[in-house]
Each structure stands twice: as C-alpha cells, then as structure tokens.
Design a protein that fits this description.
single chain, seven-stranded parallel sheet, Rossmann fold, peptidoglycan synthesis, undecaprenyldiphospho-muramoylpentapeptide beta-N-acetylglucosaminyltransferase activity, alpha/beta, 362 residues, cell membrane, six-stranded parallel sheet, 2 domains, 14 helices
Length: 362
C-alpha cells in the first residue's frame, strides 16, 4: 500500500499520523509513505527525525472577518490544492489520510477530487475547522469520542476508532513493562509548546524542600526552558528539567503520576500506559476542548481536574498528595485509566480504510 499522510501545527495532529504509519508498517512492511506538511512548522522537524519522506505545502488558516490575511490564506489554499494534485500524481497513493491542521485541507481535498480513498482523523469532541471542511469530501471520518459523531456532516461515514497514538503507547507498554521505583516519580508535561502558568507553579513547588520526597521530570517547553532553569539553580540535581522530549511514552511509562495539559493525544498516551493524572486544561484551546477531555477522565475516576485559574504550588501539591499519599487512590485511578485506553484505534482505521481502498479499485 502507498499512503500519503498529512497533519501539522501541533503534536496533537502529528503524533496520531506517525502512529498510523508505525502501525501500517508493522502490518505491511513493504508499504510506502509520504508525509505532507509545512517544513517551517513542528511537523518538519519531527517527521524528518522519524525518517519519513516529506513534501512541503504552504498554507495559512482563516480567522474571523474579511481581512488581507484571509485573502492571502485563500490564495495559499488554492496554490496548495494545485501542489497537492502534483504530489499525488507523482506518488500515486492508494490512500490519503489527514489528521488535522490547515495543511491537511488541500491534500485530502485534492485526493478526494481525484477519486482516491480518503480519511480524516479528529481527536477531539468537536471537529477542527480543517476536518469539518474535509468531512464533506472524505470517504471516512474517524473520531476518538462517540459524542463527536453527530457533529460532522454525513454521520454515517463517521467511525469511533479512538486515537491511534493509543495504539503506539500500548505497543510501547508491551515492549517496556513498568518497573517499580524506590521513590515515586512524577512527570510534568506542559504540552508541545509549553504552559507558562504550569511552569510558574512548578518553579514555586520545586523550591519547597518537602517536594523532594518524590522524583520529578519537568518538561518546560523550549521557549520557557532558560527562564525555568535560571529560576531553579538548586533544583537541577533534584529534578530532571527538560526543554522538550521526543520520548513522551518513556517518561509517562516511568511515572507513578503525570501532571499535564489535557490534549486528546496526550490523554491517549496516558490512558494506554495506565498512569494516574492531574489534568490542567489549557484555557487557550478552541471550544474548551481540553476542559471537555479532562471532565471525561475525571468522571471516570482516572484523573484529578485542576482548573488553570486555580493552579498554584499549593493546589498542585495538594492534588499530588491526594494521589501519591494514599495507595488505594493511586490503585483506583490506575485501574480507571486502563479502562480509558484505546489500544485498537490504529487497527480500526487501517482495516476500515483497507476495505475502502479495495472498493475504489473495482
């Protein structure tokens, strides 16, 4: 099978795409892949490191009212569709999959007009702008949550698959069983771009001696790293402070507790690795998606929800203590998190689209 995958702008769009590629490669070792994205965005660096062939398309998102920027965005979209058609003609894919972000729009749209099997994946409770547009043209739409089905046009084409990043995380867990620690370990993740308020709370927390009954790995986000590191000169030998990690699965799997934003892809990883969590939804995400995600996990008893406006060193420490100072609480949350896992997501997408590809060949 020859597959084009497109998604970008954030880790939540990129890592599900890479998870699909990883799964299909395990099933079809001879499959060939091409990733289409923007080389100036996150996907350019991440996909290059993964060793996957990459083609660049320039796009820009539409925002609000009629503006020069929106005129430019429409112009870039048109040019993007033209380039996407050229890429598709050259690569000759059997399947084109978009995983979100504006860059996927011209690619999936062009493929659909060329009668190639197409799919989009949307990780959240409500569709993003690109996926909402593409759902009108794609053969199938895959979603993480049942609540998302009716929010797309043509609900009969929508399949509840779960997030394929959960498949990658479950596979990782099989290969790397959790090991017991002499001291309990906490990983703090601010998301792919970092989270200033969480970083500020962690700076205050790590200045308090009592916190060192636990080990910490603290991922600050690259733009905040120097500021955080400078603020914690005494903490560097007590906590591992990182600007960024491409080993999120390893960090989560090595943890007794994760403190994190509540992006859908991060939650798929945490659930698959059966790790209790304190979730701090970002207030800056469209449609309150992270809050909706966190409420689902809180309701199932898998996580503690801590609102961003309530976040401080004190409230964070109280939440940490509630989980790790009481073994019964930790065990219950671990069990609940395991029930939230979606280890078969990539298989559902692959098997469904394999049938669509076969029908297109008839």
């Amino acid at each position: 099978m020859r597959v084009i995958v497109s998604g970008g702008g954030s880790g939540g769009h990129i890592y599900p795409a890479l998870a699909l590629i990883e799964y299909i490669r395990r099933i079809e070792p001879d499959a060939e892949f091409l990733y289409v994205g923007m080389k100036t965005k996150m996907e350019g660096k991440i996909v290059e490191q993964a060793g996957i062939p990459f083609e660049h398309i320039a796009v820009k998102g539409l925002r609000g009212k009629f503006t020069f920027q929106n005129v430019q965005a429409v112009s870039l979209l048109g040019a993007g569709i033209v380039k996407a058609r050229k890429i598709i003609k050259q690569f000759k894919p059997d399947l084109v999959i978009g995983t979100g972000g504006y860059v996927s729009a011209p690619v999936v749209f062009a493929a659909s007009r060329m009668h190639i099997a197409t799919a989009v994946f949307d990780a959240d409770h409500s569709p993003g702008k690109a996926n909402s547009f593409l759902a009108k043209y794609a053969d199938r739409v895959f979603v993480s949550y049942p609540e998302a089905v009716e929010k797309f046009p043509h609900p009969h084409r929508v399949v509840v698959s779960g997030n394929p990043r959960g498949t990658s995380a479950a596979y990782y867990a099989q290969k790397h069983p959790k090991s017991a620690h002499h001291r309990k370990h906490i990983t703090v993740l601010g998301g792919s771009l970092g989270a200033q308020r969480l970083n500020e709370a962690m700076i205050d927390l790590l200045k308090v001696a009592q916190t060192y009954i636990y080990d910490f790995t603290f991922v600050t986000g690259e733009q905040y790293y120097q500021e955080v590191f400078a603020a914690l000169p005494e903490a560097s030998h007590k906590a591992e402070i990182l600007p960024y990690t491409d080993d999120t699965l390893g960090l989560i799997n090595n943890s007794d507790l994760v403190v994190s934003r509540s992006g859908a892809t991060t939650l798929a990883e945490i659930a698959a690795l059966h790790t209790p969590a304190i979730l701090i939804p970002s207030p800056n995400v469209t449609n309150g998606e992270q809050l909706a995600n966190a409420k689902v996990f809180e309701a199932k008893g898998a996580a503690i929800l801590l609102a961003d406006e309530d976040l401080s060193a004190d409230t964070l420490w109280q939440a940490i203590s509630k989980v790790l100072d009481h073994n019964e609480q930790s065990i219950m949350m671990t069990s609940s998190m395991a029930e939230m896992a979606q280890p078969d997501a990539a298989e559902i997408i692959y098997q469904t689209m394999k049938k669509v590809v076969a029908s297109k060949r008839k």
